Amino acid sequence: MRIERRGKTFTRGGREEDLREPGSVVPFAFADATVEVEPGRMQGEGEGRMQGEGEGRAWGEGALPVIDLGLVRAGRRSEVAGRLLAALEHSGFFYVTGIPGYDSNALLRHTKWFFALPLEEKMKVAKRQFRRDSGCLYKGYFPVQPGEISHKEVHQLKAVTVSG
Length: 164
Known about the structure:
Blueprint: E1 2-5, E2 8-11, E3 16-18, E4 26-30, E5 33-37, E6 66-68, H1 70-73, H2 77-90, E7 95-97, H3 104-116, H4 119-122
Parallel strand pairs: 6-7
Antiparallel strand pairs: 1-2, 2-3, 4-5
Domain Non-haem dioxygenase N-terminal: 64-144
Pfam family, one: DIOX_N
Protein name: Non-haem dioxygenase N-terminal domain-containing protein
C-alpha cells in the first residue's frame, strides 16, 4: 500500500520516502485501487475517483473518503483498517457504507418523529444535567439552550450586535 500525504509517500511497511519534484504526478495507491494524484491538488470531479474494487476518492481539499465496512465481512479487515487510518490521519472524516440493515430513510423518519414530540416527552430521556431524576448521565436528549454556545459542535453561529 502506498499513500501520498503532505509531500511524502508512506508505504505499507511504514517506511517514508520523499516524492519526486513538486508538481510531478505521483502514483497514489489505496488498497486495491490506483489513481494518479498531483501532490497538493485534488483531481477534477470524476477524475479523482479511485478505480477498482471498493469505494473512495483521491485525497484533497473537499474530498471525503468512503469506507465500505462490508469489506470486513468479505475477509478484508486489514484493508478496511488501512483505509480508516488513512482517512483519520488525513482528513479526520469519512463516510461509512456497507452497514447491514442500515436504512437512512428509516433513520430520518424516526428522527423527525422524535423531534416532533412535545418537549415534555423529549425531556423524559433528557440528560441528568437537564432533569435531576434522569438515569441518562452522559447520553440523552439535550434541549436547546438559548444564548449558550455549544462547545461540542464544529461550527457555532451566533448573532452579534455591532454598535457604532
